[in-house]
Amino acid sequence: MPLRNMQKKTKRNVNQLTQKNNADSLVYSTEKLIKENKEKIAEDKQKELTDGIESLKKAIEDDDAEKMKSESEALQKVVYEVSAELYKQSPDAQQETESSGEDNDSNKKDDTVVDAEFEEVKEEKKKEEKAEEEKEKVKK
Q1: Could you tell me which of 83, 82, 79 has the C-alpha nearest to residue 56?
Q2: In this predicted model, what pLDDT tens digit does every residue of 43-55 receive, in sequence order?
Q3: What is the distance between the alpha carbons of residues 137 and 94, in angstroms, rounded to a whole number?
Q4: Cα–Cα distance for residue pair 95/97, rounded to 1 Å
Q5: Residue 132, class by beta-carbon neighbours within 10 Å (0-12 exposed, 13-18 middle, 19+ buried)?
Q6: d(CA 50, CA 101)
Q7: Does position 140 have pLDDT exceeding 70, yes or no?
Q8: What is the dihedral of CA 30, 36, 42, 44, to 10 degrees?
């Protein structure tokens, strides 16, 4: 019986550590997102992100796995929304939208496929052919 209890406790500890690592990673990446895109993110979304970060840090500090999980999910939802907005603002997304509306004939490349027959010549076959050629030369 004690072995089972130890296994359950170990599994619980591993899950808690995994949740804590994931939460730490989310905090770091969200802080980086804010820092790199401060001028592009709306103030209300920045506030939501920073509030989410603070709540998640508090859950990490309290070492509460369930709270870490729920706070991570809430913060991740806001991060997804902000990331989608940033993507829409990016020049690449605008170019992609513009080019998808254009006539596709101008963007087509020559993708003509040419059928061809070929014969794979093995090394031994090459040697045999050379030997036959040499025999013919000797006969002449």
Answers
A1: 79
A2: 999 999 999 999 9
A3: 70
A4: 5
A5: exposed
A6: 38
A7: no
A8: 30
Answer yes or no: are the C-beta atoms of 53 and 27 closer than 8 Å. yes
Q: Check: CB of residue 87 under 8 Å from CB of residue 93.
A: yes
Size of the chain in residues: 140
Q: What CATH number was assigned to the domain covering residues 2-93?
A: 1.20.1270.10
For the chain, the helix, strand and coil percentages under 3-state DSSP, each to the nearest 5:
80, 0, 20
**Domain ranges for the chain:** 2-93
Tokens of 95: 């170019």
How far, rounded to the nearest angstrom, does the alpha carbon of residue 120 sit from its chain's CA centroid? 40
Model pLDDT for residues 113-133, shown as the tens digit of each residue = 777 776 665 677 777 887 888
20 contacts 66 by C-beta, under 8 angstroms: no
Read off the pLDDT band of 79 (50, 70, 90).
very high
Q: Provide the H-helix boundaries in 65-117.
A: 65-89, 91-101
